[in-house]
């Protein structure tokens, strides 16, 4: 019979091996592994995209907003560029990050996101960077670029019934109002006015002409995941963009002083319009103070430059913005995300900015390409040489941990069996 002390020795050995191989804390006095405290299940589930569900097309629509009219063709998905624009590591669909930067922000609900340095174009970290998602009103940044190129900000715009009847968020245009292009562009960026988007598209030659110009500009920027199907960002068949593309578009817009000034404006007095005689009991509509939809700007997040929000039922929450600190400007993009209890989208955005600012400026997992002329092709200069580091993804880390645990358990079991066999043989002598 095996003595009691040998059984205790075997148990102690199991504990020691388990601790050493699995990394559990040990109570030395009792030689028993002390389990880690059981954490409550996380309230936020980060979408898994490692299997590239949105590499070709956007997530399925939840309503009929993208149903094409009878007799109209259904837009085909955009071609997927090969190699991936911005670097080979960006071809992946999971988290792309440098371990030297530490863990990426937790509790992010966006299926796709990106963090980049504005000046250098280095991408600090990303998730599904070229995944195709609906941009919602962040596409208005692309419209703003075209407006700044082609329209006189001081020119007057006469509104139409189609403008003030456009669905969704509104600047509050009305008949008899006197508006400049600057008024409409400011309203477009501050409160995401779809009425302003419609009026600006008309000034560019009509919706179809405006969309053609927007898509031409996207191609020139190297944004090959992007197709604007409505100037406002309202869901429409074929609408598509990606975290990488929105970063390209926003970076180009940030080079425009007027754009930077507008997105940094927390409030703006928008012109009113006279009473409508066709509406019984209507009164004059005086100018009013509109406020930015960017909560980081209104709440005074340190260093916030500005940004553009978006939301539709199909796109979910989207955001692209920039913040500056200690001479460094960081861009973030969020797509196909949500606010949940205890984890607001703005808190997620702030955590992404903080990650970007604390990361070594030399770290890069890819780069934002530089815009070119109207050829539609983008230059892809090699980023400055830095020390080569391995990149990790969430699935890689989980697989490595699982293998380590399995090896540890097998080794511990074999050691115990050999010890007990040795002790049993010794007891028979």
How would you explain this protein's 3D organization?
The protein is α+β, with helices and mostly antiparallel strands. It folds into 2 domains: 4-38 and 402-428, no CATH class; 88-373 and 385-392, DD-peptidase/beta-lactamase superfamily (Beta-lactamase, 3-Layer(aba) Sandwich), CATH 3.40.710.10. 33% of the residues lie in helices and 14% in strands. It has 11 helices and 13 strands. The strands form 4 sheets. Strands 3, 4, 5, 10, 11, 12 and 13 form a 7-stranded antiparallel beta sheet that branches. Strands 1-2 form a two-stranded antiparallel ribbon. Helix 2 (140-150) packs across helix 6 (207-221) and helix 4 (181-190) runs antiparallel to helix 5 (194-203). It is globular. The termini are close together.
The name of the CATH topology of the largest domain is Beta-lactamase
Q: Assign the CATH superfamily of the largest domain.
A: DD-peptidase/beta-lactamase superfamily
Euclidean distance between termini CA atoms: 12 Å
Overall CATH architecture of the largest domain: 3-Layer(aba) Sandwich
The largest sheet is: 7 strands, antiparallel
Q: Structural class, from secondary structure content?
A: alpha+beta
Tell me the β content. Answer: 5-15%
**Total E-strand runs:** 13
Pick out the low-confidence regions.
1-35, 380-390, 393-405
Question: Considering DSSP H and I runs of 4 or more, what fraction of the residues is helical?
Answer: 25-40%
Count every helix, treating DSSP H or I runs of 4 or more residues as helices: 11
Radius of gyration: 28 Å
| Overall number of structural domains | 2
Mean pLDDT score: 85
* Main CATH class of the largest domain: Alpha Beta
